[in-house]
Amino acid sequence: MELYITELSKYVITFLMILYTYECFAVFRYKDEEDRSGIYTRQNILMLLIHFSCFMVICFETGEMSYLFFYAFQQIVLFATAVLFHMIYPRANRLIVNNMCMLLSIGFVILTRVSYEKAVKQFVIVSFSIAVTMLIPYFVHNLKFLKSLTWVYALVGIGALAAVLILGTATNGSKISYSIAGVTFQPSEIVKIIFVFFVASALYESTSFFEVFTTAVVAGIHVIILVISKDLGSALIFFIVYVFMVFVATKNPLYLLAGATGGSCAAIIAYKVFSHVQVRVQAWSDPWSQIDSAGYQITQSLFAISSGGWFGLGLFQGTPESIPFVEADFIFSAVAEELGILFSMCMILVCISCFIMFMNISMKLYDRFYQLIAFGLGVTYIFQVFLTIGGGSKFIPLTGVTLPLISYGGSSVLTTLIMFTIIEGLCMIRQDEEKEMLRAEKKKLRNLQKTQNRKRIEMTYIEDLDDSEE
Amino acid sequence: MKNKEHKSRRKLNTQIVIVTCMFVAVFLGMMGYICYYSVTNKQELINNSYNSRQKMLIAQNIRGTIYSKDKDVLAETISDSDGKEKREYPYANLFSHSVGYSTNGRAGVEALANYYLINSNAPLSDKVVNDVSGEKYPGDDVYTTLDVKLQEVAYNALGVYKGAIIVTEPSTGKILAMVSKPDFDPNQIDVIWDDLVSDKNNSILLNRTTQGLYPPGSTFKIITALEYIRENPDTYRNYTFNCTGRFSDGNDRINCYHGQSHGNEDFTLSFAKSCNSSFANIGLKLNKNKFSETLKDLMFNEELPLKMNYSKSRITVNEDSVNADMMQVAIGQGTTGMTPVHLNMITSSIANGGTVMRPYMIDRVENSVGTVIKQFAPSSYRRLMSEEEAEVLTDLMEGVVEKGTASRLKGLSYTAAGKTGSAEYNNVKEDSHAWFTGFAPVENPEICVTIIIEGVGSGGDYAVPIAKRIFDAYFGI
């Protein structure tokens, strides 16, 4: 009986996930949020079914019904998030909220499977973070002075990163976190957002060479501190985000070219100077010859990805725990192994759908500052997804960043939630702009009609005069 | 003013669209890569000893059974009353290299088909029954192309000698028999393992059919002849040579086998009598660059399309090759080293109109109730020579049987074609490896055999009789 359920559930879960992913893109057929509400409701139902099926399998496989309580709590929090968000911010984009909940639920499922203890911890952090970040759209919507804090952002960002470098504790050979009152905190995560704000506020008015140059210096300081801290993944994210934001702000493709050449040179220098960069690149180019040392993680990850097949081995049927740090850097491999290649591909597509929605919102914003923020955060998000999945599958060298919303890690999930909620705030700003424009247009139209009417009256009057003269 | 603002906004959107498309494209590439990589490398990755999933599968499923082509059990796992498993090989030494062993690193079919043997595609209902009774799932069974009768004949014919025999079907590439001696009993592998590994003199674990590099001796004249025909398509029939038992070029001298002089001979007779002097003479006439190209086409110094462990055949022919080298190369001596399976592939291609098929040993995989999970089909690998060239070589090899060194195959109920070889491997004149490679029947070749017996003497005396016994067994005589 159990076997039937677990075997069948593999196909059911994959099928539901494909449906969900389809809806993610079906959304883009409609322009109006109101027309999309049917899709959103269907997504909520699918989400619930996937989450439920996964936990049913977990309960059957482990034989422990206590997981059901954990599931119930998760379901309540996720459901409340989706509903409350819509109630508090009726004008917010529901696709983003849905995808956020979907990715969080996948994260809960796979973390529960890998380590129950960590899953509970993650759940507490997520619940807390959601409660806090629920307020962010309101602030983004109403705080207008955010545009003018350019140098505050720069100082806070550099300060936080430098503090880690000096005071931080090393984890896995990289100095990326420090502990305050027992809570380990990884500032490079949150600085990503501050950095986007910095670049946007510096470049939204003027994109003269001087502005670009000064921001480049600040961006460079960020990147250098991170490289020295051995946090290569974050360094790369900062660099890419900066280059693309400059490209969009200046509309000059030459900056893209300059970024590409500058980046390549920096990469070559980093490869020559830092031994930890060399180790990473070698482990990527030929992990098999160093399978018991530097290549161990990546080869174990490849074993996991390839062993699942299209539909996966099923939860608790594989051995994802054989990959070191599976819960953070290699969570994608665990998903691919136990839930299947198809499921994990759908998961990537869900991330892409978030990204496209971010870009969509960015494009429609009139205010350049907000537009750049939405764009910058979107690139930050998708590039991080790319780094972690590409690294785990040997598509690119491993950089050791987390998969947003799914990986274990408090700073990571909090940061991503902040990013998502900021975008929701921007989404509301966009609607304000639209309303404003509509109002302005109506006014114009009315004025136009008025003048036309007056003209017509004058004309008839003159005609009347002419008539009467005859 | 308004218009300009509108325009600039449009342009800004274009940049965002570009960036969006870039990322989407990169992601699609990455997704394609992940799917492709994971599907194509699945088996190889699961066979990696660092992959813990293998242990998981072994713990979950009973290793499947290996069958011959006629459903004789070649290897099976028996569980005793305590649930302790033992891998049993009913034919003991007979299939020691071809079926191999499943512990101590695995070899043969046990290694090739490991992925299938440790997986279970048993019907769900059966699995449920096993779950209830607490038994392991039955692993999938592998049907090989191996023929027990031919294997036995080949094994017995080789007797106490060291050597290798490989029997294939030229039209499909199926391996029907594969014998390598000295052999061992795979039932005892755990007990005798240390002795096998430490015995450096006999290299017992080495599968000589695919890993043994031997001087090809006169069997190489097939290749020399092919090159001579290629370079002289219109005039090779006019070739004549007067053999005095030796051939000299400066200080370098080549002797015929046992110094025998063959007298006046044409191309066909030189080949049939395996005249070293005549072929050394031919060797000097060859274009080194063209010859080097041909050798590359014939997979010398190249990878073979084999899944099992094998050695690459090696040969040196280039512009710098001096006359002495060319004379040695032409008669298959010198530094040339060749595996029996490679020679078998070249012979098969002659039998198959010039095309070589990928040799294979696993015919299909079935689950515990006999549903075919995977069927392997014959596939052609490469054309080694034109159909005309294959025909000419067939005629030459038929000449070897009719009026040459393989005359023991003459006048039988079937026709055969082949080439013998007596490869010298040290300075003692009498010591030579006996070779034979050939096929039957000539009109429509069904099997191709390649035989090497180490250090016994001439191919005509020792290898040809074994070929005859294998052909006889195959044709039921």
Protein traits:
heterodimer; A: 470 residues; mainly alpha; 3-stranded antiparallel beta sheet; B: 477 residues; alpha+beta; Beta-lactamase; 6-stranded mixed beta sheet; 17 helices; 19 strands; 40% helix
SSE blueprint and pairings:
The complex is a heterodimer of chains A (470) and B (477).
Chain A: H1 2-26, H2 37-62, H3 66-88, H4 94-114, H5 116-133, H6 136-142, H7 150-167, E1 169-171, E2 174-180, E3 183-185, H8 187-203, H9 209-228, H10 232-250, H11 253-273, H12 275-285, H13 296-308, H14 331-339, H15 341-364, H16 368-392, H17 410-469
Antiparallel strand pairs in A: 1-2, 2-3
Helix pairs in contact in A: 1-2, 1-15, 2-3, 2-4, 3-4, 3-5, 4-5, 4-15, 5-17, 6-17, 7-8, 7-9, 8-9, 8-10, 8-16, 8-17, 9-10, 10-11, 10-16, 11-12, 13-14, 14-15, 15-16, 15-17, 16-17
Chain B: H1 2-40, H2 42-47, H3 52-60, E1 61-62, E2 66-67, E3 73-79, E4 85-88, H4 108-112, H5 114-118, H6 124-133, E5 137-138, E6 141-144, H7 148-158, E7 163-168, E8 175-181, H8 189-198, H9 208-211, H10 221-231, E9 240-243, E10 246-249, E11 252-255, E12 263-266, H11 267-272, H12 276-285, H13 288-297, H14 323-330, H15 340-351, E13 355-357, E14 362-366, E15 372-375, E16 380-383, H16 387-403, E17 417-424, E18 432-440, E19 447-453, H17 459-475
Parallel strand pairs in B: 1-5, 2-6
Antiparallel strand pairs in B: 2-3, 3-4, 6-14, 7-8, 7-19, 9-12, 10-11, 13-16, 14-15, 17-18, 18-19
Helix pairs in contact in B: 7-17, 10-12, 12-14
